[in-house]
Design goal:
Layout (H helix, E strand, L loop, with lengths): L2 E5 L2 E3 L5 E3 L1 E5 L4 E6 L10 E4 L3 E5 L1 E6 L15 H13 L4 H17 L2 E8 L2 H11 L2 E8 L6 H18 L7 E7 L7 H13 L3 E6 L3 H11 L3 H7 L7 E5 L5 H10 L2 E4 L1 H6 L7 H6 L4 E3 L12 H16 L7 H8 L1 H7 L14 E5 L11 H7 L6 E6 L2 E5 L2 E2 L4 H19 L2
Parallel strand pairs: 1-6, 2-7, 8-9, 9-10, 10-11, 11-12, 12-13, 13-14, 14-15
Antiparallel strand pairs: 1-4, 2-3, 4-5, 7-16, 16-17, 17-18, 18-19
Bound molecules: the ligand N[C@@H](CCSC[C@H]1O[C@@H](n2cnc3c(=O)[nH]cnc32)[C@H](O)[C@@H]1O)C(=O)O and zinc ion.
Length: about 425
């Protein structure tokens, strides 16, 4: 066995307990072999990661993003979703080249590895280029090409749909299984009924997952209620968009019937608190969804509506806004957001990981706890939700491979990636504003 040992720290166990323990990893299999106090005794260890003064926990799962949108970070702020997309974002996205998308993906994945995210779900275009970066950077992802029909001729929209299905079929299982895919219609209002139904039927024929934005703003809910006389998620269910291998981003404006529908169909929701606050979309009923038995993960959404991909920020935002939303300070507690960002997030998007236990995927991070803002440490789980930042992450491991050691990313060259992304971003904006 090619053994990697993470030693001298404390471990966050799946039940939320924290204890002193080492973690033994089979690096070739990408699996956790053992967790405990003596697991390295008498073993030949090829490499060691020092976890002294730190917490070993699952790599975080960013359940919904558009990673290449890092190029648009800070480009258009302080607007609601509709006008932000139509007036600012979509015109610039129309100028995006494949190379821009690759440069943005490198930047976003670099940022995620540095802040402790090993796994993400992504909807964008030129996804073959994103897949290439995922493979090289060593992370895990569920990827899909977004389908938008607004402003397009039927033939062009149909070609988009075909492209999304084709990408999903071709890349599922790529990068030694680290890449899984999904058919990704953008949302219930940007893809018309016939294309949505048809795409989902074709996806189901090939057992492909489905991911879309849903019930993000009231502007998205009203047209569906008006046109079809039912709530958006009832409409979605009738078109096959709900089920255990489907997950929705946002779920902000979800009523009681829709909550039941999500629970009954075992459909997961990815909560994106920062994006929902920034675009003033509303407050997702996370406490209610969880109480109903819906699996809820956490996502950053794109960097243009966040504006970073640091998932620790999102844990804090989720806990905070969850309380405001429920008008109850005990709602969405620390342990819940940690679960949402790890095991529940992995389950929501159907990827392995999210647990430090024997047999689980070796996707883990070491968080440095020796810092003024983390002292004293009465309750480590509280710190993860309310005080830890992405910059506290010391090591990142995915699929048994060390992606960052002592804050140095090993699979991407940080300086090169940042320079290239800044250059692509400047050229892109210049072209769009020409
Ligand atoms: N626009 C592409 C495909 C969609 S990719 C995913 C899209 O989601 C957009 N997006 C980013 N954040 C959000 C959000 O919060 N809600 C809805 N769409 C978003 C993003 O700008 C991107 O255009 C096409 O024409 O084929
Ligand atoms: Zn989104």
């Amino acid at each position: 066995m090619n053994a990697l040992a993470v030693t001298g720290g404390r471990v966050l166990h799946p039940d939320g307990r924290v204890s002193e323990a080492d973690v033994l990893i089979d690096a070739d299999a990408g699996r956790i072999e053992a967790v405990g106090e003596d697991v390295t005794a008498g073993r030949e260890i090829a490499r060691t990661l020092d976890a002294e003064g730190g917490l070993v926990m699952p790599g975080l799962v960013n359940g919904h993003t558009h990673v290449s949108m890092t190029l648009l970070r800070g480009y258009a702020d302080d607007k609601p979703l509709e006008s932000w997309l139509r007036e600012d974002i979509w015109p610039v996205e129309a100028e995006l080249t494949d190379d821009d998308i690759a440069a943005g993906a490198e930047l976003g994945i670099l940022e995620m590895i540095r802040s402790g995210t090993t796994t993400f779900a992504d909807m964008y275009f030129s996804m073959d280029r994103v897949a290439e970066v995922v493979e090289r950077a060593g992370v895990r992802a569920r990827l899909g090409r977004g389908v938008v029909a607004v402003g397009k001729e039927e033939a062009e929209a149909r070609a988009d749909l075909e492209g999304s299905l084709e990408f999903a079929r071709t890349y599922d299982g790529a990068a030694d299984g680290r890449i899984r895919t999904a058919f990704m219609p953008h949302s219930l209002t940007t893809v018309p009924e016939n294309l949505l139904t048809e795409g989902i039927e074709l996806a189901a024929e090939d057992d492909l997952w489905v991911h879309l934005h849903a019930n993000e703003t009231t502007d998205e809910v009203e047209p569906i209620v008006e046109k079809h006389g039912v709530r958006p998620l009832e409409y979605a269910a009738d078109r096959g968009a709900l089920g255990p291998d489907r997950f929705l981003a946002h779920g902000v404006h979800v009523d009681g019937t829709e909550t039941e529908l999500l629970a009954e169909t075992d459909t997961s929701v990815i909560h994106c608190p920062a994006s929902n606050m920034k675009l003033a979309s509303g407050i997702a009923p996370v406490q209610r969804l969880r109480e109903a038995g819906v699996t809820v993960g956490i996502g950053t959404d794109g960097a243009a509506s966040n504006n970073d991909l640091d998932l620790f920020d999102e844990l804090r935002d989720a806990a905070m806004v969850g309380k405001i939303g429920a008008d109850d300070a005990s709602a969405v507690p620390a342990a819940a957001v940690v679960e949402m960002a790890t095991s529940d997030g992995a389950d929501a998007i159907g990827l392995p990981g999210g647990r430090i236990e024997t047999g689980a995927a070796a996707d883990l991070i070491v968080v440095d706890l020796e810092a003024p803002h983390l002292t004293p440490a009465h309750d480590v789980v509280s710190h993860l939700a309310y005080a830890v930042r992405g910059s506290d992450v010391r090591h990142t491991v995915c699929d048994g491979t060390v992606l960052m050691r002592d804050r140095e990313v090993t699979t991407l060259d940080a300086a090169t990636v940042m320079d290239r992304a800044a250059e692509h971003a400047a050229d892109l904006v210049a072209r769009a504003e020409e």
